[in-house]
Amino acid sequence: MSEILGSLALGTFASGSRAFAGLVRGDRVLELDAHAAALGLTAPITTRDLLADWDRVLPLLEALDGPTIGLSDLRVLPPVRPRQILQSGANYRTHVIDLAVAHRGPDDSEEQVRAATAAMMDARIANGTPYLFIGLPSAIAGPHDDLVLPGYSDRHDWELELAAVIGAPAYRVDRDRALRHVAAYTIVNDITTRDLVFRRDMPEIGTDWYRSKNAPGFLPLGPWLVPAAHVPDPMNLRVTLTLNGDVMQDESTKDMIFDVAAVVAAASQITPLHPGDLVLTGSPAGNGMHHGRLLRDGDVMTGAITGLGTQRVRCVAESAA
Questions:
Q1: Could you say which architecture CATH assigns to the domain 85-317?
Q2: What does the pLDDT look like over 173-190, one tens digit per residue?
């Protein structure tokens, strides 16, 4: 396990067929069902139960002590099962420029595209709002689960992201208050099938995020929920993804166009956000389209964000029917 910010993190684990929420300290896990009474909750406890009463529960979690289990003896599951996933696209300046260059027309020079895209983002920052869309909870997988690459395409790509985890319900909150509703942070790899992003049969419709992002396992999540109180500045974290040991993404969250607070506030304007919901904040530069190298059978992606742990996902080709 990589270092976590603060003294603890939360996760969900399996021992055999039994799943449970646990408190992570170092390489040891404290099973929380045994401490339900101390937490004022009823077993079995889920991380979503904790997030629903976060301000009261967090100091109690920090004070817990007792017998622990070695992390190596457990399977790490997705740390939370959200009701809703709100995703932010085109939210890192360098990434947006790289995508625009990759998709430029044959008559457009790279310099022209870079300049035009930079001007567009400056206008968005001044007058626009985050670009949001919906993800399916059924796409969530554990942080160490294999990713089955669907056989209908050979253009699957990675996008490592910081995700804000909602605690207190949020509905139409403004940016100044938005972070009060964030209980924790975690890591998500937003896998994308590039040739399904745009509908060739209906180009006027634009992007098709349902088909391109929601296959089973396309949202490896976790490993941990790190309390927001232990993350001094979510806008100063390093997002890093390696492919078979080679660095592909390595960028600071400082490169976001709209910061975490702005993205959470925008997500709350249309739909109420509930405890455990995820708000993804976009992915930095360095995806496969930029490198000209998309995912293949046997690839291993290792993703980390400062102090939030590490996920390791192996890619497996879909078996022929």
A1: Alpha-Beta Complex (3.90)
A2: 999 999 999 999 999 999
